[in-house]
Amino acid sequence: NAGVTQTPKFQVLKTGQSMTLQCAQDMNHNSMYWYRQDPGMGLRLIYYSASEGTTDKGEVPNGYNVSRLNKREFSLRLESAAPSQTSVYFCASSHRQFTDTQYFGPGTRLTVL
Amino acid sequence: DAKTTQPNSMESNEEEPVHLPCNHSTISGTDYIHWYRQLPSQGPEYVIHGLTSNVNNRMASLAIAEDRKSSTLILHRATLRDAAVYYCIPPVGNTPLVFGKGTRLSVIA
Prior knowledge:
Oligomer: heterodimer
Largest interface: A-B, 24 and 21 residues
Radius of gyration of chain A: 13 Å
Shape of chain B: globular
Number of helices of chain A: 0
Largest sheet of chain A: 7 strands, mixed
Radius of gyration of chain B: 13 Å
Helix content of chain B: under 10%
Structural class of chain B: mainly beta
């Protein structure tokens, strides 16, 4: 099992550009999550999807959109990137929402110039 | 919210036991206490969780106070690969996990 995979691993954008971060899991989990981690900080939840077909805002959703494409895949889109979105982005999944163990991907390091 | 308090950093010698404390004085009676760790340049990984009694797995042990207001993650023999940030997370019902700043553990050879 690959677990949780994320693409790309690194990305540099210019202000105003758009991009989509991809996440996939092969553990048949129902719930998926997107977090961001700024230097020296803990993780903050951007969006989550309790199950296929549902998405909800987390702590810091502004400037992002998500799509739960199917049970395996959960993408995060930045429509117009800003320097404040420079961060490391982690995708995670769990069997049930929140209370079950979350499994994390390796992260995407995004720099917005 | 179950507010948690962890030391910012701790240091251990290799092969020595490490006790990482966490206070979660407002935890409810039915919320499990979860511990995750984050190795350098990696995503967080699950370490252990428990409700009331002490728990052991291949990675660590979790000692939970009788009143559940605090817990201690125990690494029995720290290795250099255990150098990481350790997060204590008592979820509050069916709400998102809150990853605070955790405790940065340094292991000295």
